[in-house]
Amino acid sequence: LMRSRDRRPALQVASIQQCGLDAAEEAAPACPLHGPMLALVLRDGAGRFTRRHCCSFTRRPGACSAKSGAASALSAPNCCRLDEALATPRRLRAYCLNCGRLALGSSELAACATHQLLPRLPKRRLLAPTVFLPPLTTRQSSQYFFSPPSLAYLLRLVRRLRCRQLVCVGCPRLHEAARYAIGGRRCRSLLLDADLRLAEFFPDCLAFNMFNAAFLRPGGRDRFVSWLAAKRGSDSVCLIVADPPFGGLLTPLMDCLQHLADLAAAAGHCEVFTAVAAPYYLGKRWLRPRLSLHDCQLSYANHAKLRSASVSAVRLFSNVPESRLPPPPGTSWCSVCARHSAHWNPHCAACGTCATLHPPARLHCQRCNRCVKAKYIDSHDCRSGLSAKN
Ligand SMILES: [Zn+2]
Ligand SMILES: [Zn+2]
Ligand SMILES: [Zn+2]
Ligand SMILES: [Zn+2]
Ligand SMILES: [Zn+2]
């Protein structure tokens, strides 16, 4: 498990006023592990502004040191060994948790004899590595995987859009599912992920930092561009799906997704769509106006609070028109707003909109003529028409 041993605290998101990559790339300092750093404008408690650079991935000031846990990841294998693993007898194929890589054949097994091994890997494990690899955990973020219902919805979206190329940014389980559920001929999937362990298992997988659009291995960008160019047909649709870690900075993420969308458009796709999983309260501020919020709750298989879609605060944001989305579970079509609205988001005739972002449903206050959160219906400051809590 590549746990980071770096003890420097990350910069607080709340203090960040502006962030982005320096316009002149050669002038920007770079982290040796994660590529160009972000330039931040920070505001301290006294209201003073300072500029500084931080690693875009860890959000720590300065570069990550080669001693930190992430460095061991750089020695991780860089080529897909899936075919080799499938051709190796099952008793001679294992995964070494110490080395973070496959151990295939008797000599590699002997080299890892004193290490902790997952022995006798069956074929279904090799084809679905996110099921058995221990999720990466760092101080900032942990690796979470979409639940089966959320994966099923995203695959329905891929089919409904007649998507020919799917770019999975930081969502390995969607890539895994798309490879086998949709089939390689109609839709091809590519994984861009900072988890360097995955390249061994997927032929179409590139090491990538979604917070500065940096490919972390030499030649990665060229491989991505030639993968895009291999699309078939002139009426092709490309969908880019990103699942950023919780607490990740959404402004540089959006810049990165725009960059990927520009590359896909340059490759000749007639339509390029972008979809992001983010909490409704963050996305409203950081992802608009480029993406709109859908009443589609996404859940995670290995997250205690976000396991169930009915309570999850994570939503799908995208620039896919509502009319082209498959109906998300638990929604019905609101013909006034022309959108799929959740059952907890009833249309308010007085406001003329579906006004609830998160359950329970808002209630309309006749006196100040607006919808307020149900728990504030009796306590909000009605006369001024402005409730501090709302
Ligand atoms: Zn770094
Ligand atoms: Zn080992
Ligand atoms: Zn409505
Ligand atoms: Zn209302
Ligand atoms: Zn009121």
Strand content: 15-25%
Q: Spatial order of the strands in the main sheet?
A: 12-11-10-9-13-14-16-15
Largest sheet: 8 strands, mixed
Mean pLDDT: 84
Ions, cofactors and other bound molecules? zinc ion
* Number of contiguous helices: 10
Topology:
Blueprint (H helix, E strand, L loop, with lengths): L15 E5 L9 E2 L3 E2 L1 E6 L5 E6 L14 H6 L7 H6 L5 E4 L4 E4 H7 L5 E2 L4 H5 L1 H4 L15 H13 L2 E7 L2 H10 L6 E6 L11 E5 L4 E2 L4 H10 L7 E6 L7 H17 L4 E9 H7 L5 E6 L16 E5 L12 E4 L4 E4 L4 E2 L4 E2 L8 E3 L4 E3 L18
Parallel strand pairs: 9-10, 9-13, 10-11, 13-14
Antiparallel strand pairs: 1-4, 2-3, 4-5, 6-7, 6-8, 11-12, 14-16, 15-16, 17-18, 19-20, 21-22
The structure holds zinc ion (ZN) (5 copies).
One zinc ion binds next to loops.
Keywords: Cytoplasm, Metal-binding, Methyltransferase, Nucleus, Transferase, Zinc, Zinc-finger
Subcellular location: Cytoplasm
GO molecular function, one term: rRNA (adenine-N6-)-methyltransferase activity
Please describe what this structure looks like.
It is a single chain. The protein has 390 residues and is an alpha+beta fold. It folds into 4 domains: 13-72, no CATH class; 79-127; 148-328, Rossmann fold; 331-390, no CATH class. The chain is 22% helix and 24% strand. It has 10 helices and 22 strands. It has helices at 69-74, 82-87, 105-111, 123-127, 129-132, 148-160, 172-181, 220-229, 250-266, 280-286; strands at residues 16-20, 30-31, 35-36, 38-43, 49-54, 93-96, 101-104, 117-118, 163-169, 188-193, 205-209, 214-215, 237-242, 271-279, 292-297, 314-318, 331-334, 339-342, 347-348, 353-354, 363-365, 370-372. It has an 8-stranded mixed sheet with strand order 12-11-10-9-13-14-16-15, with helices on both faces. A 3-stranded antiparallel sheet has the order 1-4-5. A 3-stranded antiparallel sheet has the order 7-6-8, with helices on one face. A hairpin with a 5-residue loop joins β4 (38-43) and β5. The longest helix is centred in the middle third of the chain and has 17 residues, at 250-266. One zinc ion binds at residues 365, 367-368, 380, 382.
